[in-house]
């Protein structure tokens, strides 16, 4: 807890009341873009949803349910990959039964046949926890035919109640989320901007990203949700159209999620100094924010965009096909799942372009445009023999990116050094599979061969692989390249010019003064042994792992073997 004197170091007593330019006290009510105040206050939220805003409230509620004998289930927001037997591994979307929640960071749960600890921040509790017990007792109604009508009526009422529960959770969490965004913008950002001696403009952009744009967007979204919310009969609410109407706007989360790891790093550096720790705690107290550290508040947008598909999936489950909102909810679920996929794909691409930029810097004699000018992902790499019309063969290492195929030659003595030898525009060529035997056009005997034929000129490239399986991989890779280009066009997948320039600049700085030679991606640190905290079960892990995956849906593409191939081709480690 920050001492009263330390808070006074940053603001005088008068600053507890934010003063507007005309001398009046600034209202803390949420105001929409048309200037009208929203019809709920912080106090209203506390009264209506005490456990959403009270620290430890959700934990207390879970333990109450478990102690009463209820089955409590949660759905995974992210993949949790672990090599520790004490931890429970799962994929995004998996259902975990929560068995104990006495620790705020790590819960004890069951997934399939295993019980172990898992990070609480990786899951979202299901709204309708009574579903399993209802299903188990459903056979009783079948045994008594005279009560069939009554049971159907009760089932319908139960379905309505379950839909009401999900609708209310969506509305309540949305209102609380707006409160958190408001606190970040007014409690942290506004005060940081006043202290120019502590924060540069660049630092604030790194820490907070575009969260102010998210706040503005979410206020509009919530305003439309409120219009579609049926307060008297919540199960009749038709909110699917709101998600469809704003689905393009949710794309702004991509920038925030991509920026979030950098924000954590910048914040971590500042928090090493006591004055910054005291400053941010003073901001929290003055804004009367709940007892969560600033990094927890900054994680809320990442968590929020991941929760939407889960909430909509549960809402769809309790929306009958006859319901007027069924089709819109179904479309909204798919739309928000696609938004999450796109955000995850952009994040993956940003990580990929950094590696590709470092790879280009390591190539000797690079000519022409940077690889990132047209490409953002490596699809396949390996050795092929390039054959000319005169029968001359050249052993080359090829790297197939989206839109282009780059040819390199290995140094005879230092096999980790590559020399640039040219590239082929994949948008301008057609793939031709060749049978083993004599090629009629070139009058040459070929084996495991294929051609890339230019669509605009008479240029033809002939390649031979060492083995049949190598040829098959290259043919599949070329098809994958064309498919991915189409998918990128359909998804609107683009990396900004600034991000490309930044990646190349960082790669050039990192490679300055080093000898040429490419290497694999950095090796992950070894798994750290967790210090024990003596509890009922096996030891509780003491630190919550960093979220690695932002999307909910399974990735559409398998991980590239590019960097694995690099490691195999690199006998010398720098």
From TrEMBL:
TM annotation in the entry: none
SMART domains: PH (SM00233), RhoGEF (SM00325), SH3 (SM00326)
UniProt domain PH: residue ranges: 377-483
Compartments, record wording: Cell projection, Ruffle membrane; Cytoplasm
Record has Cytoplasm as a keyword: yes
SH3 domain boundaries: 69-128
Region: Disordered, residue numbers: 132-157
Name of the protein this chain belongs to: Spermatosis associated 13
High-level lineage: Eukaryota, Metazoa, Chordata, Craniata, Vertebrata
GO molecular function, one term: guanyl-nucleotide exchange factor activity
Organism of origin: Neovison vison (American mink)
């Amino acid at each position: 807890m920050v001492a009263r004197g330390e808070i006074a170091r940053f603001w005088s007593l008068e600053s507890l009341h934010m003063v507007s330019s005309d001398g009046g006290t600034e209202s803390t009510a949420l105001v929409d873009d048309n200037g009208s105040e929203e019809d709920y206050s912080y106090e209203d939220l506390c009264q209506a949803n005490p456990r959403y805003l009270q620290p430890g409230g959700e934990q207390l509620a879970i333990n109450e349910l478990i102690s009463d004998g209820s089955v409590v289930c949660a759905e995974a927001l992210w993949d949790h990959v672990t090599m520790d037997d004490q931890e429970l591994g799962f994929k995004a979307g998996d259902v975990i039964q929560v068995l104990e929640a006495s620790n705020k960071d790590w819960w004890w749960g069951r997934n399939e046949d295993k019980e172990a600890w898992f990070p609480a921040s990786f899951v979202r509790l299901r709204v309708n926890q009574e579903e399993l017990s209802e299903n188990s007792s459903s056979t009783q109604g079948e045994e008594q035919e005279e009560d069939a009508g009554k049971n159907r009526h009760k089932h319908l009422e139960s379905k309505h109640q379950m839909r009401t529960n999900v609708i209310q959770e969506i509305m309540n969490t949305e209102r609380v989320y707006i409160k958190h965004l408001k606190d970040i913008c007014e409690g942290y950002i506004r005060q940081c901007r006043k202290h120019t001696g502590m924060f540069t403009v660049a630092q604030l952009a790194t820490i907070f990203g575009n969260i102010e744009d998210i706040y503005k967007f979410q206020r509009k979204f919530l305003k439309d949700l409120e219009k579609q919310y049926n307060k008297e009969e919540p199960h009749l609410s038709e909110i699917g159209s709101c998600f469809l109407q704003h689905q393009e706007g949710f794309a702004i989360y991509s920038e925030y999620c991509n920026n979030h790891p950098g924000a954590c790093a910048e914040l971590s550096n500042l928090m090493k100094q006591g004055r910054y720790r005291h400053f941010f705690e003073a901001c929290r107290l003055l804004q009367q924010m709940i007892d969560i550290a600033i990094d927890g508040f900054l994680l809320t947008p990442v968590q929020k965009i991941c929760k939407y598909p889960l909430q909509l999936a549960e809402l769809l489950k309790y929306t009958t096909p006859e319901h007027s909102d069924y089709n819109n909810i179904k479309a909204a679920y798919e739309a928000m799942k696609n938004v999450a996929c796109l955000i995850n794909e952009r994040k993956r691409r940003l990580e990929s372009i950094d590696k590709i930029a470092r790879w280009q810097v390591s190539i000797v004699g690079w000519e022409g445009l940077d690889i990132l000018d047209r490409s953002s992902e490596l699809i396949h790499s390996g050795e092929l023999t390039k054959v000319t019309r005169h029968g001359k063969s050249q052993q080359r290492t090829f790297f197939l990116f989206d839109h282009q195929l780059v040819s390199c030659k290995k140094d005879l003595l230092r096999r980790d050094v590559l020399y640039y030898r040219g590239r082929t525009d994949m948008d301008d060529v057609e793939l031709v599979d060749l049978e083993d035997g004599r090629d009629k056009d070139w009058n040459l005997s070929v084996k495991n061969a294929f051609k890339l034929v230019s669509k605009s000129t008479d240029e033809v490239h002939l390649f031979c692989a060492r083995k049949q399986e190598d040829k098959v991989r290259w043919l599949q890779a070329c098809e994958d390249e064309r498919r991915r280009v189409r998918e990128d066009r359909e998804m609107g997948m683009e990396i900004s010019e600034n991000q490309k320039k930044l990646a190349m600049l960082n790669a050039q700085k990192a490679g300055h003064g080093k000898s040429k030679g490419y290497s694999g991606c950095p090796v992950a640190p070894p798994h750290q042994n967790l210090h024990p905290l003596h509890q009922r079960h096996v030891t509780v892990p003491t630190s919550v792992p960093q979220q690695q995956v932002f999307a909910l849906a399974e990735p559409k593409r398998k991980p590239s073997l590019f960097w694995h191939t690099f490691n195999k081709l690199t006998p010398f480690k720098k």
